[in-house]
Amino acid sequence: MTRKVKKIVLAYSGGLDTSVILPWLKEKYGCSVVAFAADLGQGSEELDGIKGKALASGADKCVVADLRKEFAEQYCFKILTAGAIYEQVYMLGTSIARPLIAKAQVDCALREGADAVAHGATGKGNDQVRFELTYMALAPQLQIIAPWKDPSFELTSREAAIEYAKARNIPIAQTKKKIYSRDRNLWHISHEGADLEDPANEPLDDLWVMSVPVSKAPNKPAYVNVEFKSGVPVAIDGHRLPGHELVERLNTLGGRHAVGQVDLVENRLVGIKSRGAYETPGGTILFEAHRALEGITLDRETLHYKQQVSLKYAEMVYYGQWFCPLREALDAFVASTQRNVTGSVRVKCFKGRATVAGVTSPKSLYSGKLASFTMGSEYTPSDATGFIKLFGLQMRGRGRR
Predict the structure, then answer these.
(1) Under a CB-based contact definition with an 8 Å cutoff, are residues 322 and 331 in contact?
(2) Cβ–Cβ contacts within 10 Å for residue 326, how many?
(3) More exposed terminus of the chain, fewer Cβ within 10 Å: N or C?
(4) Global confidence as pTM
């Protein structure tokens, strides 16, 4: 049963959806509304003037929290060490941000004495699940308000939302000619809607924001050296940096060379196939480097089992199950696998690709003598004869039958 609401904390981005939801909440509930904005590295274009915009749109207060370092080190780097990539190519840039935003929003609601939290995610997408699962896990006593799922919410399209904003003099960046739905943070930017809704349409060159089109990437490659300690990136080209600054620098480098562009038709949790274009330049460099370092520091059985864990981990992040016991248990497994993932990886960025150009580690399991085509005392070839006979015993028996 819906309780009377006295104060709402809205997850506010300043984008189209939350810009119109804010005054709608005021009109419908007649209560105090606090706009909560999270700085996840989306840049000054989105954050400059966001407090003034929120207040002008009807907010009683606007809180902006700088979460960049926490986002990089406690969220992005966890999916990196887990090797979590959804459906082979999506590096979970939006997915991994939502639990942190919702957690900080809940903290804000408790500080402000609010009795409700609200979000602007649609009833068709994944974000509604990610926000609401986090609310339930961390503060089940708070009422959840999701306007897009309210039957009285008449703004059922982005076109209608634009008209609503114009009628109330709410400044918005979108127009009916430029109507991509974008989500940007330190890790990536996503693009959805408009011409992308038809999978037959190739992404236009002017779609890309964090990176240049491949056709405009330099003809000369760039190299970067990434250092890891226990699976976590700690330095670039010898310079130790906090997590968010490290990712920012790699974003600049990767973006200049068109690294990290993905065009994907993905399977949403709610059962809908959706098409999106993603840019994850720095993350792509880190994933490639981390994969290479694991290749020389993890034994075969651990590496292969971790690949199975990576798939489950990616699903859980995509589904919004961050604050649950299984994810925490998987983190413990991943942390154990990363104890020896220490070393340095040289990555080449060129024409849309990040490729490993060299890897070294003091914990390396790689033996040049064993791997060499030259036979030595380290390996007796005749030993393989008996091994193969035993390994293929059942196959040989079946063949005889």
Answers:
(1) no
(2) 11
(3) N
(4) 0.94
Q: What does R_g of the chain's alpha carbons equal in angstroms?
A: 24
Contact 292, 233 (CB under 8 A): no
Provide the token pair at 83.
Answer: 């090797």
pLDDT at residue 373, as a whole number? 83
DSSP secondary structure string for all residues of 302-361: HHHHHHHHHHHHHHHHHTT--SSHHHHHHHHHHHHHTTT--EEEEEEEETTEEEEEEEE-
- Residue 165 pLDDT: 86
- Grouping H, G, I as helix, E, B as strand and the rest as coil, residue 90 is strand
Structural domains for the chain = 7-179 (3.40.50.620), 188-298+340-360 (3.90.1260.10)
Residue 161, H or E segment: helix 158-167
Rounded Cα distance between 29 and 23, Å, is: 10
- d(CA 188, CA 196) in angstroms, rounded, equals 18
Please state, in angstroms and rounded to a whole number, the distance separating the CA atoms of residues 207 and 347: 26
Rounded to the nearest 5°, which phi and psi values hold at 268? Answer: -70, 160
Residue 274, phi then psi, degrees to nearest 5: -130, 155
Tell me, what DSSP letter sits at residue 76? I
Strands (E), 239-341: 239-240, 261-267, 273-279
For residue 147, give the DSSP letter.
G
Q: What is the pLDDT of residue 173?
A: 67
Question: Looking at the annotation, which residues are catalytic?
Answer: 17, 98, 127, 181
List of residues 6+ apart from 394 with CB closer than 8 A: none
Phi and psi angles of residue 192, each rounded to the nearest 5 degrees, phi first = -140, 160
3-class state of residue 239 by DSSP: strand
